Amino acid sequence: MTNDPAVTFHRTQEGRLAAQLDGYAMIAFPARDGRISVWSAFNIDRPPEQWVHDDFFICGTSVADEEEFRAYAVEFAAHIAEKATLPRMSIRSGHSTPWGMADASHRYGEGVIFHSSPSHGGFELSAESNARVHEAWRSPDRFYEEDIDWAKVAHAFPQLFTAYERREADITLRNWEPDAYEQIHGVTLEPGQFMLR
């Protein structure tokens, strides 16, 4: 069954709902809280009907049910297509970062570089680019790690990120930086709109 030309949905032999999209594979596994955990992998060399748990190694998000799983897969396919239109490019690696020497680096835009190392990764901004990050979120060393702080870069440079990434950045900042989020956006977050406080 297909909801979008870029996504096909399947059932594995175990009855799990799976999605195949442009080299990516996703599968729905039950979570302890009654929700569905979305696991993913790349380029599995067997038909989706033959996929098994051991094929998947990235546990991303969780969704309420199979309908949300399908919507998430379609949204992620749109993210992949949009990302291909952005001017991101690989550049020479070997830069020193707070996480060690970078083994891969990508230029997102002028003064916005993403570095990855064997242990971790994140963004490095030029002084000019760093000045565009809101002062409540600005890093004095111009580095923004990939788990939470990347979202501050996405907030400052939305044109360099996909709609999916911008939405994830907004969720991340609401959850982990609620006080600054309220200050910057001039809003009051209600219970259920964030995780920390």
TrEMBL record:
<protein>
    <recommendedName>
        <fullName>DUF7007 domain-containing protein</fullName>
    </recommendedName>
</protein>
<feature type="domain" description="DUF7007">
    <location>
        <begin position="93"/>
        <end position="194"/>
    </location>
</feature>
<dbReference type="InterPro" id="IPR054276">
    <property type="entry name" value="DUF7007"/>
</dbReference>
<dbReference type="Pfam" id="PF22653">
    <property type="entry name" value="DUF7007"/>
</dbReference>
